[in-house]
Amino acid sequence: MRNSFFLSILVLLSFVIGCTEEESGTTVLVTEEVLYASGEQVRLLGRLITNQPVIATDHGFYLSQDANFASPVIISLGVKEGAGRFIGETGMLSAQKKYFAKTFMDIGNGIEFGNVVELETLAAGLDSYSPGFGTPNQEVFILGKNFTKDTKVFFGTEPAQVLEILFESRLRVRIPAAKGSSSVPIRVQSQDQNLVFPINFEYQTGSYLAVAPFPEQVRLIENISFQNGGLFYAGLGTDRKLSFYTKIQSYNPVTNQWQDSNFPGSPRAFGFASSNYIGGGVAELGREPYTLNPSLWRVTPTGFQRLKDLPFASRESLAAELNGELYVIGGKEGNTQAVRKHNSISDTWSTLANSPVQFTKENASFVYQNRFYVIASDRVLYAYSPSTDTWDLISKFPGDLGLGYGFGQVIGTKAYVGGYTRVDEIWELNLVNLNWVSKNQIPGPPQGVTAGSFEKDGFIYIMRQQDINLIGNFPLIIYKFDPNGI
Length: 486
Prior knowledge:
The chain is mainly β and 486 residues long. Helices cover 4% and strands 48% of the residues.
């Protein structure tokens, strides 16, 4: 259609030139086509056709939402010499509107216009955003189309800083602070359009509150910790690896108070502990070969009861209670892949099938639905089932293992793993779908070491201290961690 129009003009020009030699010449101005249109931008192509030299003091395009071109947007391209095509563009239009466009020029006889064409600006649209999970001040990229230069982005009700708009189709946005909820919709406002993604953005969560510090100024290393009833116990081990710490302190999260539990046993480092048992470890400070402490103690409502000594060597073994029985796994002495079960009635031990790899207290572990979960040194998460005496590969931990000695705790159907030495990460594992999600980092210097942890009423209490290589007095702090806090 357009080609036929141009052909007609050329035929007409040829006829006029051939039949009217005395005429000074003929000039035709054509609005050829719309090269590009988006939400607020348009690019137009025009042509000046003539058989004589001309100089236009100005040329370009008129655009208006009114067919009579009231209050037009004028694209002025300035002086033009001779015939030929020209292109004009503007970014001053309204989205989703019908416009009329025509060329203009001024060659000394007043402004002349070309033919009128119609066009329609386009609506903005959303495609995707990435990442779908993050923290304030991180950047998110939003992909879509026809974004206008005044585009705004909101995370819930909070405005985000739009850092860059690329090619009208890509927004680079800084995540605002979270307020009210950790799961919020992303809304994009482009002129008078409000577009919302169907899937909410998820803020990384996890808040920390420092509660009562450890009652003594020590740097507790190679210690034990466990939870019994509503109390948390931590102690034994060494102070800075220089001397034994001989006490076990108990912490009550209701009163936020510590108290000496009056443990009657001998000192030890590298021992194991579960909710109801304390055992193993070394009896003297030094290097290999170690003098081991074979004693085993039961935690009772009235104190501590000594049981028969361990019939095996145990240093840095893992311990867990499954179906009411104590299991001691691995360690750094003897059979380092041994799994041993204690009979609480006869106070005797049986040896089960070996674990697939060596496990020690360096490996974070937790219990869920009477299965023992432990993260190996290659980040593989194993689960031990006491009913079948078998190990299964469950998942792979995505975080940093640091120098080991992290913690594992369970709340409902989610496990929380982290706090490794010199690492401030915590990760959440959904034990139903096995998805991992990172949580906000543990506060304090990055050289932190976890001396114990426990769970109470949907919160995790993390006892954290500074590495012994840091000079100075640092309190041994308990952080109350809310996994869903923002």
